[in-house]
Design goal:
16 helices, D-Maltodextrin-Binding Protein, domain 2, alpha/beta, seven-stranded mixed β-sheet, four-stranded mixed β-sheet
Length: 333
């Protein structure tokens, strides 16, 4: 009887331990750029459901949002993010340079680890009273332009590069591009550190005639504040903004979350996630889904960073480093 009792006790303990393991919850922290929060809020629910059905495990995904470059610096300074979902590869490279991520991170997932893209557009007041149609219009006297700081925000950086590249694509010279950017930023009354801050300035504080921002931010603004208040303007030429993702190797391994972190990013390429991205005005890699949403994500005349600047890293060194072209043209208000 005693032996049988001991066996029952041991079995009960093992069962309790097994249940504890099963009940254990995996937690991920996703550090992302600030105008992605609505998409990832919905994507997290989608992934959590998928992972539960696939493995039976529970996952909690927490979010940290801010200017893309600011987020990268926060991770270097100690923010323990398991994954990053950024809007420019240079911010992931910063983490690789600090040995938090493998140097070949871009080769680990399709499309250089960018599951979708965006582009830079112009949002104007209803009726477009300043008749803004192109990048040159942002340089006109009397036009107030809201752009995030390109030294701290990927949103602002792509806005700057889009305007510069539009000159080069039309046969202009770098000196002409620099002149255009100098005039545009002379019309910028203040620089917010991130894209969402720029949105707040334009929408809630009612400052500026035009907001230069990512395409996916526009629909969110219309939904929250009313489509009758703003008009979307697609400039004749704009830029492809790749939106790269990566596991933060050092932190995921420390937390023991690599398996779930990798699955979290891989699932971004699934048809379900690609469709969700399209619903949030992010341009999916899935060709069929992109075609399905062509009315809200129309085909545009877009150039890549590589076409004009060689790479984001080269653009960073020439335009956004201390003393670079941006510092040369921008006078703080």
């Amino acid at each position: 009887m005693k032996k049988k009792y001991i066996q029952i006790v041991i079995l009960a303990l093992l069962l309790t331990a097994t249940q504890s393991v099963i009940a254990a919850e995996v937690k991920l922290l996703n550090a992302s750029y600030d105008v992605s929060r609505e998409f990832y809020k919905n994507y997290n629910s989608l992934f959590i459901k998928y992972w539960k059905q696939k493995t039976g495990d529970d996952v909690t995904v927490n979010q940290s949002h801010g200017g893309s470059s600011k987020q990268a610096r926060a991770i270097v300074d100690g923010l323990e993010a398991d994954v990053v979902t950024m809007n420019q590869s240079t911010d992931v490279d910063i983490l690789a340079e600090n040995q938090l991520i493998a140097a070949d991170w871009a080769k680990r997932l399709p499309n250089n680890s960018a599951p979708f893209t965006s582009t830079t557009v112009l949002l104007v007041r209803k009726g477009n009273p300043k008749n803004i149609k192109d990048w040159n219009d942002l340089a006109k006297t009397g036009v107030s332009v809201i752009i995030a700081n390109p030294k701290t925000s990927g949103n602002g950086r792509y806005a700057y590069l889009a305007a510069w590249g539009s000159v080069i694509k039309q046969g202009g010279k770098p000196a002409q591009a620099k002149e255009l950017l100098a005039k545009i930023f002379a019309n910028v009354p203040l620089l917010e550190t991130g894209g969402r801050g720029a949105t707040t300035t334009f929408v809630q504080r009612d400052i500026g005639d035009v907001l230069v921002t990512f395409e996916n931010e526009v629909e969110l603004i219309k939904q929250e504040y009313g489509a009758d208040k703003f008009d979307l303007v697609y400039p004749p030429i704009s830029i492809v903004a790749d939106l790269p993702v990566s596991v933060v190797d050092k932190i995921a391994d420390k937390h023991g979350t690599r398996k779930v972190a990798e699955a979290y990013l891989n699932y971004l390429y699934s048809p379900e996630a690609q469709e969700l991205a399209a619903k949030f005005e992010l341009r999916p890699r899935d060709v069929k889904i992109a075609k399905k949403y062509s009315s809200s994500l129309p085909s545009l005349n877009l150039f890549t960073v590589e076409e004009i600047f060689g790479s984001l890293k080269l653009a960073q060194a020439e335009h956004f480093k201390d003393g670079g072209f941006f510092d040369q043209i921008y006078t703080k208000k």
